[in-house]
Amino acid sequence: MGDRKKIEIEYYDKKAEEWLDKEKIKKKETADFEGFNPLLLDSFRFCYQWLKENCKNKVVLDYGCGNGIHSVPLAKMGAKKVFGIDLSEKSLEIAREKIKKEGLEGKVEFQKMDCEKMEFPANFFDIIFDGGTFSSLDLESAIPELVRVLKPNGSLIGIETFGHNPFTNLKRKINKMIGKRTGWAAGHIFKMRDLDKARQYFNKIEIYFFHLISWIAFPFLNLPGGKLLLKFFEFIDKILLKIPFSRKYAFKIVFIFSNPKGRRDDLFLTSSEDSVND
């Protein structure tokens, strides 16, 4: 395993330990490693609505699952089976504890696994959800692997930080200096060129942009009035993001990649019926 991956593992293992120690955080089961519920944000609510409408009775991968914050909702949305993978064992320990508390052991399975070299057979998943893992990866390796394990009629939905806003890029550099981001992640934020790369692998690509200015409210979400401030800025976002030029500078991007190129059901040994045991 390369030094890059070891650094990422050490970083997220440490974040997991810090998360466990933060007794002041309420409802930790619904909080990410930054301490707030992502469903406060329009971007994540959009993702969850799409997943709720599409994942029923489907085999779903929570790609780079971290502490399992998205895995539990996916199971409750009616997914047939949810697999979560991550290289941070300490994060997976938190995720497994959540599943036990929710009584979902038979519905959700966590594995320590490299997202760039997955151990799943080809043609395995109906839906893959990326909750912000791409910046930790080498997409030249990751995207072909995602295509390999995705069924020909499957979809990859993801939410990523977008890397074109000079103000959020400055914030990212500061976060790197104070240890809140790894050097690799700070230097590999998702950009337009990565969308172009995805177009080489998928026939259908849908893009949605969020948080042009509402990211300003993120540090205040756990403070009195923080949620109201966020709602106000998100309202302004909806107006500003109607202007095509502004979209490149959104803080978050949601993408839905479907219909992988060069894929047919008869090309793979694993059939949809045999992918997961009932």
TrEMBL record:
Pfam families: Methyltransf_25 (PF13649). The keyword Transmembrane applies. The keyword Membrane applies. The chain crosses the membrane at residues 201-221. Gene3D superfamilies: Vaccinia Virus protein VP39 (3.40.50.150). Residues 60-154 form the Methyltransferase domain. Keywords: Membrane, Transmembrane, Transmembrane helix. This is Methyltransferase domain-containing protein. The lineage of its organism: Bacteria, Candidatus Nealsoniibacteriota.
